[in-house]
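BUG-504 | component: ligand-complex export | severity: low

The export step for iron/sulfur cluster jobs runs without errors, but we want the raw record kept on the ticket for reference. Input record follows.
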Amino acid sequence: MRVHLDAEKCQGHNRCYALAPELFDVDDYGQAVLIGDGDVPDGLEDKARLAASNCPEYAISITD
Amino acid sequence: MTDTVENKQTAPEPIIGPSPEGTELWEREPYDAEDYGEVADYRTDFDHAWPGYNPNAPEVWKELRESGCPVAHTDRYGGMWAPITHDTVHEVAYDTDNFTSRSVVVSTLRPGELSLPAPIGVAPPISSDPPFHGVARRLLLPPFAPKKIAPWEPEVHALCQRLLDQMGDIEPGETVVDAALQYAQHIPVNIIGRMLGFPEEDEDLFREFVHNTLERINQDPRERQVDDEKRLDLYIERQVQDHIENPRDDLTSYLLEAEIDGNKLQPEHVTGSIILLLIAGIDTTWSAIGSSLWHLAQNPDDLDRLVNEPELMDFAIEEFLRAYAPVTMARLVAKDNDFHGCPMKKDDWVLLPFPAANRDPKQFEDSDKFVIDREENRHAAFGLGIHRCLGSNLARLELRVAVQEFIARFPKFELAGDTRWSVGQIRGPRELPVRILETA
Ligand code: SF4
């Protein structure tokens, strides 16, 4: 599973960082950044899905 | 019939187009709130500041949706539109070409060219449009980023505990406290005042500023006279002066030292941003805390679950924010446009009721139901698009800690009388008597 972040769409709601801090970090401006290259480690699939389905700006997407 | 047509023809031409040159505030059509009175049909006469609106807003939205009216209208305020579905609210929030943020609080008067040194706007960045908006916003983002806000958590806990202590002796089953007046209202005002570096004893004054700005919208601003010592602009001038003489580690000094392209901010930018920070975070978070406690007071099952399953808290907070979002924003139409068949004219008001969007069944399953562990929750409580609430991390922290501390102290409580709701764009309980049934 891979997780993608569209930095253009991200408005820094920080839902992803709150729900899946293993996958997302925030920069000094409160904008989301991916930890690593977007490959979702085993066991974190649910958290990735949770982050994606709680982003109000639809900035996160998931591919297999 | 003929009469009406003739009357319409002789009615004064509304001013359409830019505000009359050199005006600070202007009125498109002479407006008198008294002429309107009770709202009979929200589809054609929508008024968010009608006192009956906030207490019953979810029913109003439901009725509008079910009658197939995604965008309501009214002649009040010189003409205002109110999109109420998630799609239409989303569309307006994203379309900064057709909708300007010059003024985000609907009032009888519109800001004119003089009161509004474009492109800054009266309270940047909330009142700014791109491209200046991005610059002003980027400046304010760092102090409100999650990692800068997190260290305030112990302070918020201590404050909430102090407020609970101040309620005095509690006799379970007997004692009634006002969760809005004795608790919720004190939390955001204390924290933002301290972040700005203003004296703690001025809290009552801040709340009055907010009230004047947000609740008295049916009064002509020129008539909202207040004494000098209660004038927000003069107060902030004094605080700014004090910070110029004694710089310290707070938001006011941060703004005074900040630079855009190597230049210090213009004085009106500093003052405007302080006004924004002071006004924006107070009524809003107070409302969110109050509404959440109002819900728990009436839903003992949810209260029980929250007390016994603290791991639900983060989901519950988002659900409180969805179901009881406090903030409705507004825009002015920037140029004539056809919006889903609505002929919007330049300088019409457009309301942005994010709380209504949050109840749209097309966007949320069981949208009118409070689901304490709702898994998918893309709510718009903090807005959508470039104006996402700058203080959302602080607001979330205050809301979560306020609920945690209240239910830790009072694991059982119920409504004990009438809730009084706010009037205007910020929706939440202003008086919330609850009877304490159990203390920890
Ligand atoms: S939840 Fe969405 S908008 Fe918010 S920080 Fe994450 S990616 Fe950005």
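Assignee comment: Attached the raw record above. The two ends of chain A are 4 Å apart (CA to CA).
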